[in-house]
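Chapter review: from sequence to fold.
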Amino acid sequence: MNHFTAVTLNEDELLRQALREDIPNGDITTNAIMREQRRGKVQLICKDNGVIAGLAVFLRVFELLDSGAEMEAYCQDGDMVAVGELLAVVTADIHAVLSGERTALNYLQRMSGIATHTRSVANALNGAKTKLLDTRKTTPNMRVFEKYAVKVGGGNNHRFNLSDGVLIKDNHINAAGGVKEAVARAKEYAPFVRKIEVETENLAMVQEALDAGADIIMLDNMDVETMREAVELIGGRAETECSGNMTEERVNEILGIGIDYISCGALTHSSVILDVSLKNLEVI
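The token string follows.
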């Protein structure tokens, strides 16, 4: 399992931005209640069944407010957790605990929800050769965390950003004047080591992408029978990816077609959070 064993400087800045959003000019409630520096312990309690993801990010929020913050974790990213389970105990300055609580929980809940949803869809693949991919349909400034959560849940990352790979979509095709023209320009411009993927909407476009020499052909919003015909038409001359409303039910429908990849934007844009809570704060 791939874990966040350390949060990078770039990720730190994202966490600092989130903290500044929530604490722009101090935490007036905590500052009023706690006039002196005291350390405390608080329990992280699970309130849902699911997959936990983002524990190191959760802790890092408190570390940015108190360099002496510590966490004793009783699970690790990728573990199934259950309602009522004690997941961890955080020890830190009480100001850091109270001021960082919401931000830390927001990250952990969001990432765990994505990991849980991904695990459910990945299980539907049931050992098939088809790989589950995420998309760029992520929350602004959350992509690094959300794509990590997909991997924890058993999915794979598609391109991370627009600099990562060539994916020619419908508007690119319109701008270039056709599939053939778009692929030719991509091959001329992009390094030869980059694969070229083309989004297609019907069998005629699939044939155009094949003739143009696309490496990967995306079958976008096609029904099951059209996808089956497209895979037969491609005949292994390019890798195949299907996308468009890829629910668990649809994944089950297309398992036998022989698709190489299924991309599912819902993993990051529609996952429900996994409810966790900080409880039983104790002054020490």
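Two observations follow directly from the output. DSSP finds eleven helices and twelve strands in the chain. Residues 123-269 form a domain with the TIM Barrel fold (CATH 3.20.20.70).
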